Amino acid sequence: MMALKDILVIEPSERADGPVLDAAAFLASRYHARVNGLCLVAPAMPSVAECFALGAEAEAEVMQHLELREDEAADAGEKAFKAKLLQYGASGDWARIRADRGEDLAPLRARLADLTIAPRPDRLDPHGIRLADALLLRASAPSLFIPPALAIPIALDRAVIAWNGSREAARAVSDALPLLKRAGTVRVITFGRPTGSSVCGAAALRARLWQHDIAAEVRHADIHDAGKGILDICEAFEANLLIMGAYGHNRRVEATFGGTTRHVLLNAPLPVFMSH
Predict the structure, then answer these.
(1) Residue 239: which of 190, 194, 196, 183 has the closest Cα?
(2) Of 35, 49, 187, 221, which is least packed with CB atoms within 10 Å of its CB?
């Protein structure tokens, strides 16, 4: 079973003091883990006046102003990061990279972390979507995606496991065992038309969780739209943590025509733990 000792938190500099940091600091204090913050610094955009700067000296001055604004944003993020860790009695390190390199560099670091925590992507944020895909598919990193309007303090004590018997779902459950052991209530949800193999699979999962001292109840949901159905069940259950496998089908098909992973990634109002 994975132990949470090294947590990587990824946050854009413009949103560095939000629920993503709260989740990372909360889990670090709970599991006595170290937090490594990775700040994605977006390039500063020139003003209208700066766009009309003429001459080498004026252009150099504009570049200095832009770099200064980027540094100020990163410094504010580092200050918020350290203050949040101090609030929770946790420790960690801070690093910064350019946001346009996040999709390449973040997965390399995520491979060496026990858990990566990142903002849930927005449908209007292609960079955030590509970062989430890179963490799940290129890094194969257990990832916890945090919605932007998450209530503080964070609990993570009412968990729903979306179970379809896939390799990805089994990986997600295994990776999430440390979180599940601390959850007060765990519900396993199976989907689609029940078959003998699916019923046996859910029973075997329940038995496995019991071996780890995790008591779970199993429910079956006969729904057609799995993505929406999972989130509706989480809302009705008042869950504050969803655990599921990611991209059990072809990612390009899901991205083009929609799918369970993509729907949950873009719409979940609660923290979502995913593995691929």
Answers:
(1) 183
(2) 49
